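User: Could you walk me through two proteins back to back? I'd like the raw sequence and the C-alpha cells for each, with a short line separating them so I can tell where one ends and the next begins.

Assistant: Of course. Protein one, sequence then structure:
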Amino acid sequence: MVTPERLRVNSLSPSPIGEIRQLHTLGPTGTNLEAAAHEWFRRRGLEGEGRVTLHATLEYAMETVPRNGEHALVACAVYPDLHTLVFGNLRVCRMVDSFVWPTHEMVLAVAPGGRAEPRTVATHPAPAGLVPPSSERQLVTSNAQAAIDCADGKAEGCVTTVVAAKAHGLRVLHSFGEVPMVYTVHHVREAAP
C-alpha cells in the first residue's frame, strides 16, 4: 500500500532525468524507438545535445550501456519481454519517464514487383498481428530489420514503418496508419554497494 509518507518521499527524491545525455534504443535506423528517443530529447529542450545510440536488441543495449548515470534506455510498452528487462535489472535500471507518441505509419510492404499476397513476411514480434493470416511470419529484431530482410529477398514481404519501407525502396501494399504508443525511459546507473 502506498502511504502518504511514501508518496512524499518519492516526490522529494531527486530526479535522475536531468543527468541523461545519451539514449540507447532499438536499431537499425528507421525504428519507431529511434524516432521516440529523438522526440524525448526534443521535448526536454535537448535536441541536438543528446545522443541516440542504436542496438540490435534492447537486451544487448542493457548489457553494454555505461552505468554512470548519463545513459538511459528507451523502450515501448509493447516491446517483447519488457517485463523481464525491467525486473531483471532492478539494481541498475529504473523507469523514470514515459510518454505517449504515435509510431510512424505502420505498413505491409514488398519489394518492387513483389506479390500482392506475400507468402513470407518479416516482422518484429510486437506488430506480428498485422501479418496477413495467409502469410508465414519470419520474426526479426526490429521493424527496420524487417524492411532490410524484405529488400534483401529473405522474405517476400514485411511489416515495417513507412520510413523504413521508403528507405529500402519497398512498395507499400497496405497502411495500418500511425499507432498511439507508450514509450518508456529507463535510467541506468551502477547499483549502490
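----
Protein two, same layout:
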Amino acid sequence: MNAPHTQRTQADPTETMLSLLDLSGADGAATDEEIFVGQSQRQPHGRVFGGQVLAQSVLAAIRTVDPDRPIHSMHAYFLRAGNADQPITFGVQRLRDGRSFSARRTHAYQDGVPILSMIASFQAPAPGLDHQEEFPERIPDPETLPSTADLLAKVDHPARSMVPDRPYDIRHVQAPLYAAAKGERVAANAAWMKTKGPLPDDEGLHRAALAFGSDFTLLESVLRQHGVSWVTPGMNVGSLDHAMWWHRPVRVDDWLLYVQHSPSASGARGLSMGKIFNRRRELGATVAQEGMIRMPDDVLARQQ
C-alpha cells in the first residue's frame, strides 16, 4: 500500500508560470547585454526545468524587439544543469535589426557562467507561400483521455508530487511511459496539452509559454521505440539542445496536439522531432531536441 501523501495548499500553476515569465529589468544594469532576472520553480531533484529556462530566455529576447516582429525561430544549447533554488540572470545581445528581421542572442547565467545559450530570430509579418503538413487522422479528442494527474494518482511515481505544480494539463494519446512501457514499440508519441488556466492576449507570451510546454514529453518517442519507461532504474536523461520554429499564431490555453517522432538514437543520444497543431488543424510550431539518454548495461543488453 502506498504511503499517504500530506495535503498541502497548491499555488495556481498557471499563475506560477506567469510569475516565472515576469522577468525584472535588473535596475537597468547592462554591459553589451541587456540584463533581466528571473526566478525558478523548485523541483524535487533541484535542477531547473529546461522548458522554464527556454521560455524565460525567449521572453528576455522578446523584451528587446519591437512588438510588431514576433519570434519565429530559436536554437538553444543546454550547457549546464541549473540550480532551481537560485535566480537566473538573462543577458540579451542585439545581434541585428534589419528591414524585416531581427536577431538576438540570450545567455542564461548562474554563478557567473552560462547554463543555456540561445539565438533567436524575429520577423515582421509578410505575405508569402503557404502550406503545412496534414493533421494526423484517428486522434481521440482530449476530453476523452485521462490527465497525467488522473494517471499518476493510481501509482506511486516520483513525478506524482510535481504534477499539481505543472502549468500544463497533458493527456497522452498512447499509453504513457510514467510507470511502464506498454504497447507497440514505435518511435512515435502524441499528447494533447494546454495550460491549466487562461493567459493574457499577448502573442509573445503565448509563444514563450509554448516553448515551456514543448519540453515536457518530446524525448518519449525515443523511449517508446525501445520499450523504456521513465522509472527505468539507472537511466539518466538530459536535454542537450532545443530548436523551435513558430509558423502561425497559437494559444496555449486551448488544446494543442503535440505529435512527436524520433528519426535516430545512437551514441547515448536520441533525437526527437515534434509538430504542434491547434484544434483547427493548423500547424503552429515545429520542435527538435537531442537528449542524452544513458542506459544501464542490463537494459542495453536486452535491446540486442
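Residues 50-62 form the longest helix (13 residues).

Let me know if you want the two compared in more detail.
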